Amino acid sequence: MEKIFKPSLLIIVAALILGACTTPPYVEPRSGNTAEMVVRMRPALGTLFYLNTYENAESCSGEQSIVSDKNKIIVSKIKVAAEKLTTLRYVEMNNRASCSIRFSFFGKTDHVYVLDTVTTTGHCNVKLWDKTDMKTPLPVSMIYRDSGENTCPYFKQ
Fold first, then answer.
1. Is the C-alpha dihedral spanning 146, 152, 153, 155 positive or negative?
2. What percent of the chain has pLDDT over 90?
3. What is the DSSP letter of 152?
4. d(CA 31, CA 81)
5. Could you tell me which residues are beta bridge partners of residue 86?
6. pLDDT at 115
7. pLDDT for 102 beyond 80
């Protein structure tokens, strides 16, 4: 019984912590330069997942929720600010493992981006494409921001 109790207790504690720390929803820019982003999530079966962004993309502060398993949306379309740094964080968790990828990119005005998340056994990945011209999708350069104990190191433009 002890082996069953400990994992169950950990799950309950994690659920309480996550429930107490709700992340505010992402608010799309209402003015200025914007780009469109389509998010296509393919999480591993049975995992919890979310995609967040930050009010301050350089310091990764002011985290905001874009998509999560709470609303069961796997494909979503949003507007993001363009001509400036955007930082995103993709996370998947289950009772055996977790994955977190934090990255930044510079979006261009009126471009269409597609973010694909793909998870295979023991590995998760994100790919970002500029699909403004659907005939010739281009990979987008990303700056990976995870360092050490999953912190967001200072970024200097």
1. positive
2. 46
3. -
4. 9
5. 105
6. 94
7. yes
